[in-house]
Amino acid sequence: xxxxxxxxxxxxxxxxxxxxxxxxxxxxxGSTRWWDAVVALFAASHHVIRVDLLGHGRSAKPTGAGYSIxxxxxxxxxxxxxxxxxxxxxxxxxTGGYVATALADQRGDLVTALTLIDTGPSMNAxxxxxxxxxxxxxxxxxxxxxxIRTDSIIRKGLSTAFxxxxxxxxxxxxxDVRGMTYHSLTAASQASDxxxxxxxxxxxxxxxxxxxxxxxxxxxxxxxxxxxTAEYRGIPGVRVELVPGAGHSPMLENPQRTAVLIAAFxxxxx
Length: 270
Fold this sequence. Notes:
The chain starts with a strand and ends with a helix. It has helices at residues 36-42, 69-82, 95-106, 130-136, 141-147, 151-158, 171-178, 182-198, 201-208, 225-233, 250-253, 255-269, and strands at 2-4, 7-9, 11-14, 21-25, 47-51, 88-93, 111-117, 212-217, 239-243. By secondary structure, it is an alpha/beta fold. It contains 12 helices and 9 strands. It is globular, with a radius of gyration of 17 Å. Helix 1 packs across helix 12, helix 2 crosses helix 3 (95-106) and helix 4 crosses helix 6 (151-158).
């Protein structure tokens, strides 16, 4: 646990401290645990740093402000300074991709390259949060649903994050969502929308000018993969990879393929 700007943040480090730094940032409702399968494939060769974003996992869940994407990114930067990381490839899943992008914008000295995993490029590519997600973010109805949330309701909400046949959502992911407050969930979700509506991600990435790898599950149920990849391919020099048979979370549905793509990208930009 680290105190960052007066709030408690959970940080996990794996692998050799003198190895190349790889920073992994989870998405909305997730935690550092969403990266376990990928970390197992990198820990022997990389210094892997994971952070529970504010409002998530074991980090603090304050009732006030601080959930904006730039604020989340700034805290990650301060944590990396604290653990002695000077240069890193930053990987973000879904909402974590916005945090990674904001970090690269704020700290060009720190972020050498970016990998975005199923991070929506603009609202044009958005499909749906699913019926449970839609209800959760409806004023009044959402608060009621949150009070009576059961494992079954949470699993239905999480189900749109996966498309691989037979994939079983780990109970820990259910507990991650259950451990959030309604304020932290909705504030973090609104912050993502605000960031994307303010400026689409392709324009942000083009302005930052860092090497970018975009990975998308071909069967993503939250963001239309065909629209998303087309928008990202419009950025000069961006590499785009589709993972067949995977949905919104290829690092869980096909961790081996996802790790291979990240490793090849990391070796090319080193």
